[in-house]
Amino acid sequence: MAGKKERYEKISDDILKNIGGKENAISAIHCATRLRITVKDKRKINLKQIEEVDLAKGAFINGNQLQIIFGAGLVDAITAVFTEHTGIPGNTDKEGDAHSQAGLKQNAFQRFLKSLTDVFIEIMPGILAAGILTGLTSILGQKGLFGPRSVVEMVPSLAGINRIINIGASGIFAMLPLLVVYSATKRYGGRAVLGLAMGTVMMSASLPDAFAVGSGAAKAEIVHIFGLPVQLIGFQGGIIVALLMGYAVAKLDQFFTKKLPGVIQFVLAPMLTILVSSLLLFIIIGPVGQLLASGITNSLVWMANTLGIFGYMIFAGIQQIIVITGLHNMFGAVEAQLLSSTGHDFLNPLMSVALAGQGGAVIGYMILKWKHAKTRELCISAFTSVLFGISEPAIFGVNLKYKFPLLAGCIGGALAGGYVYLTRLTALSFGTTALPGIAIAEPANNGYLNYIIANLIGIAGGIIFTLLLGAFHRETVTEKGPVVSDKSLTESIAPVERRDDVLSPVASGKSIALSDVNDKVFSSGSLGKGAAIVPNKGEVVAPADGQILTVFVTGHAIGFRTDSGAELLIHIGIDTVKLKGKFFDVRVNQGQKVNRGDLLVNFDLEELKKLGYDTTISVVVTNSNDFHEIDRIENETVIDRNSKFLAITA
Q1: To the nearest whole percent, how much of the chain has pLDDT over 90?
Q2: 642 and 540 inside one domain
Q3: Whether residue 533 sits in one domain with residue 424
Q4: Does one domain contain both 189 and 282?
Q5: Active-site hit among 30, 31, 85, 224
Q6: Do residues 26 and 153 both lie within one domain?
Q7: Which among 30, 372, 556, 571 is annotated as catalytic?
Q8: What is the CATH number of the domain that holds 589?
Q9: Domain termination site, one of 106, 136, 159
Q10: How far apart are CA 624 and CA 622, in angstroms?
C-alpha cells in the first residue's frame, strides 16, 4: 500500500508541475474514469507532459477543466491521494461557483447532464452488484445452460444460497428510487439523510404499489387537498421522480436552513423540508415525473419495435459520437428508468458493441501504422482500456485524432448493433460494458454467447473498415509518427490537395514574429507556426480564399481553412475571451465560403486598448506539419491588405 501511495504522490507532483502549480488549480474531482481538475488559466497546462504521466491513458481539456484518463477504480485512488497530497479541494458544495469563476463555459443543459452523471456514479456500485447478482441467480436457476436441469436442481444444497442471492439482487432494484433520491439530494447540496427519509415516503408500505395500480390489481387512494383531488400511490420504479425529488429536497433543505434562526433550525428545517417535499411529491413532481418516465420508456420501446434493426444500428453507430459530445451523461437515468419499467436494458449491449467498434478501429489503425513504435504502443494501450469498458483513450488518443478510424468504428458498432437486435440481446443492469459487461448480460437465449459474438463483430467491423478507409486516406508521416490535420470525416477520406500559397495580412498594422507574442501558447509554437500583427485598425479580413471552420461565440477567434489546405487560427488580442464577446462583431458564419480580403470581424480597437488589453492578432497554421515550410515574409513596417504576410510551401 505504501508503495502505491508513493507512486500516486509522484503522479500528483507531475500533474501539479504541468498545470501551473497549486495556485492555478480550483478543484479536483473524478468521474468513473477521469480525474477532472478545474483551473484558473488553462494556458498554463502542458498537455503533452500530462499525457506522459505515469498510469495516464490520455488527457484532454474541456473548457477550463483538464481531464486525465486513468480508468475505472484506479481514478478513485489517484484522486484521493492527489487531493490529500496537493491540498487542492475536492468535490464541495461550492464547486459550481469555482467552475464559474474559472470561466468553464457550460450551459444549463450541460450542467444538468453532468449532475446526472454525479448522481449515478455515487450509487453505481450498488447497481452493478444487483445486476451481477441477478445474472448469477439466473445462471443457477435456468434450465438448459448446463443440461436439461438447472444448477439448483442438480445441486439442491445451492437452493438456499440462490434464494439469498435473489433477495439481494431484487431488493436493490426494488429500492432503487430510494438510492437515487438519496444520491440526488447529496449531489445538489442537501443533507443526504433527508433524501433517504424522502425515499421512504416514496416507497411507503402504506401506499398502494405503483405496479399493482398500473396492472389493475390495486386502486390508488384519493385524498383532497384544498379541494383538489390528489392520487396517492407508491413510486416503485420512479427513477425520474426520484431525481426530481432529490433536487427539491436539497433546495428546500438549503432554504429552510438559511432562513430559520439557529434556535429552531435544527428541529424545524428537516420537518418543513419533508412536509413541503411530500406535498410537492404527490401534487406536482410525482405526476410530472411519471409522465416524463412514461415518455422516455415508451419512446425507447417505440424505437425498438418500430425502427427495428435500423434503430438498433443507428444507436450503436452514433453512441460513441454522443460520448464525445457529453450527452451520454443522460443515459444512466434513462437506463435506470428502463430497468425499473421493463426489467431489462437493451441499450447496454448496444453501448458495448459501439465501444467494441472503436476498439477494432484502434487495432486497424495500429495495423496500418505498425512500423511506428509510438503509435503501436498507444493503440495497444487504448485497446486494452476498451476491453475493460473505457473508450476515452481510444477515442481521444487515436480515433478522433486521426478521424477516419472514428468513422470506421461507428460502422463496426452499427453492424454489431444489428446482431444485437436479431438475437434480442439485453442486459440485467447497466454501468459496465465490454469484458466486465458479460456479467450483466441476460443469460436467456444464449445471451452470454451472443454478447461475445456481438462484441467480436464490432471489433472485426472496426478493423476491416479502418483498413478500407485507410487505403484512401493520406497522412504526413514524421519520425514521431503520423500527423493528420483537423479536417472533417469526409475530407479525411478525400483530403484537400496541398499547394504552395502566400497569405495576405488579416489586418493592417505591424508584422511581428509569433515568438514575440506575449502569450506562451502562441509564442512557444505549440499550436503551430505562423506570425502576428499589432493592428492599427479594428478589422480582421480573410487572408486568402477559403472557408470558415469555426466561429468562437466570444467573437475573439476564427478558425479558417484556405483553399490551398492551410488551417488557421486567427486570434484577436490576448485574454480577450474574458470580454465574452463585448466589442466584437463577427460578420461570418461557420461553414461560409469567403474570398481574400472579405471582412470577418469588426472589433473596437480603442476600447480594448483603454481596458489595457494587448491587441496583438496571432495567425497560426494549426496543421503546420502538413507543410514543408511556413515562413513570415519579413516586414517590420506597416502592412495592409495588399501586403504579403506568410509564405506556405507544400
Answers
A1: 30
A2: yes
A3: no
A4: yes
A5: 31
A6: no
A7: 571
A8: 2.70.70.10
A9: 106
A10: 6
Write the pLDDT tens digit of every residue in 112-143: 766 777 787 778 788 778 877 877 887 787 77
CA–CA distance, 501 with 153 (Å, rounded to integer):
79
Give the percent of the chain with pLDDT over 70.
87
Q: Could you tell me which residues come within 8 angstroms of residue 159 by beta carbon, excluding any fewer than 6 positions away?
A: 152
Please say which residue of 86, 106, 126 terminates a domain. 106
Known catalytic residue: 31?
Answer: yes
* Angle, helices 108-141/331-342, rounded to nearest 10 degrees: 40
Span 455-501, pLDDT tens digits: 999 999 999 999 999 887 654 333 333 433 333 333 333 344 555 67
DSSP-H helix ranges across 103-175: 108-141, 151-154, 159-174
Residue recorded with cell 436493490:
172
355: closest CA among 329, 381, 318? Answer: 318
For the purposes of burial, counting CB atoms within 10 Å of the CB of 127, is it exposed (0-12), middle (13-18) or buried (19 or more)?
Answer: buried
Residue listed under C-alpha cell 459550481:
96
Residue 543: pLDDT over 60: yes
Q: Write b or e for each residue in 259-268: b if 16 or more Cβ atoms lie within 10 A of its Cβ, otherwise e.
A: eeeeeeeeee
Look at residue 202 in the predicted model and tell me its pLDDT. Answer: 92
The alpha carbons of the chain give a radius of gyration, in whole angstroms, of 28
Is residue 35 scored above 80 in pLDDT?
Answer: yes
199: pLDDT strictly greater than 60: yes
Q: Please count the structural domains in the chain.
A: 4
Same-domain pairing of 133 and 67 = no
* 88 and 131 housed in the same domain: no
Q: What global pTM score does this model have? A: 0.53
Please report which confidence band the pLDDT of residue 14 belongs to, taking 50, 70 and 90 as the band edges.
very high
The residue written with cell numbers 433517504 in the block is: 196
Closest CA to 225 of 282, 302, 294, 297: 282
Place of cell 498537455: 47
Number of neighbouring beta carbons within 10 Å of residue 325: 11
Verify that 619 and 544 share a domain, yes or no.
yes
Residue 99 falls in the annotated catalytic set: no
pLDDT of residue 106: 52
pLDDT of residue 599: 92
The domain of 80 spans: 2-106
What mean pLDDT value characterizes the chain?
82
Do 186 and 263 lie in a common domain? yes
> Binning pLDDT at 50, 70 and 90, where does residue 297 land?
confident
Residue 181 forms part of a structural domain: yes
Q: Say which DSSP state 156 is in.
A: G
DSSP state of 427: B
∠ CA 282-286-290, nearest 5°, is: 145
Counting Cα atoms < 13 Å in the Cβ hemisphere of 349 gives 36
Does some domain include residue 320? no
Is-contact 532 543, C-beta < 8 A?
A: no
Tell me how far apart the alpha carbons of residues 434 and 438 are, in angstroms, rounded to a whole number.
Answer: 7
C-alpha cell at 423: 438475437
